[in-house]
Amino acid sequence: MNKKGFIFDLDGVIVDTAKYHYLAWKKLADQLGFELTHEHNERFKGVSRQRCLEILLDIGNIASTQEQFDSWMMEKNIDYLEYIDKMNESEVLSDVPKILEYLKEKNIPIALGSASKNARPILEKVKLLHFFNAIVDGNNVTKAKPDPQVFLIAAEELKVQPENCIVFEDAIAGIQAANNAGMISIGIGNTKILSNADYNFKDFTEIDLDFLDGLIKDRRTI
Ligand code: B16
Ligand code: MG
Q1: Domains in the chain, number
Q2: Does the annotation mark 11 as catalytic?
């Protein structure tokens, strides 16, 4: 049996921070004089902060200087952090702690692989930081998902071969990144959108411990 490692994305997998990203981006859009819809917000999922602002300005058809761009990014993050500051354990998505506890019990190394530069404070807020053997986030990468960099660094930090890593992701770019890394990809959320994943679940309540055991013991099918 090969040693396995489990890698979790943050937003949309562990917590639903997308709603706070939306509120903070919407405030900026309001200020710039156009409406940001929930549909627009879908385009922000799994995408870096800088890329989100590029998309937002594109939606609003707004040009900016580099200085203005940087200042809007900072403004958005300050607003976002106000929401993060109020987070607590109740915001952890269903059955995530159960899965993390099970893996911990079995001594399976666990990493975070997220685009967010705020991953650490969020995990602290929701009291899950202690589960993670490695945190790889927006501060550690130079290439965004679908580039496999974030997950390959996580595998390296866990000292597990990429082909023995299992990734939980809610974004198309994240599933592509896991596939590009040669890892097993598990889509959490919309099955149709995440059809490139090796396995799909609506959320963690659909994942039973036998399925996890199968992954741990090299059985690639349910
Ligand atoms: P920050 P994930 C991503 O998180 C979010 O889905 C995306 O909307 C956000 O822009 C990105 O983190 C960067 O976040 O502004 O906190 O650095 O899904 O990769 O965990
Ligand atoms: Mg995500």
Answers
A1: 2
A2: yes
pLDDT digits (tens, 9 = 90+) for 89-115: 999 999 999 999 999 999 999 999 999
Residue 195 located in a structural domain? yes
pTM of the model: 0.95
H-helix or E-strand spanning residue 168: strand 165-169
* Catalytic annotation present for 95: no
Q: Which of 42, 83, 114 to mutate to test the pocket of ligand 1 (most atoms within 8 A of CB)?
A: 114
The residue from 33, 59, 84 where one domain ends is 84
Looking at residue 220, its pLDDT comes to: 54
Q: Give, as residue ranges, everything with CB less than 5 Å from ion ligand 2.
A: 9, 11-12, 46, 170-171
Q: Do 113 and 152 reside in the same domain of the chain?
A: yes
Distance 72 CA to ligand 1 centre (A): 16
- Of the residues 9, 70, 170, 213, only one is catalytic, namely 9
Q: Compute the C-alpha angle 26/27/31, nearest 5°.
A: 110
Distance CA 194, CA 199 (A): 9
CA torsion angle for 91, 197, 131, 89 (degrees, to 10)?
A: 0
pLDDT at 1 over 80: no
117 CA from centroid of ligand 1 (Å)? 7
CATH number of the domain to which 56 belongs: 1.10.150.240
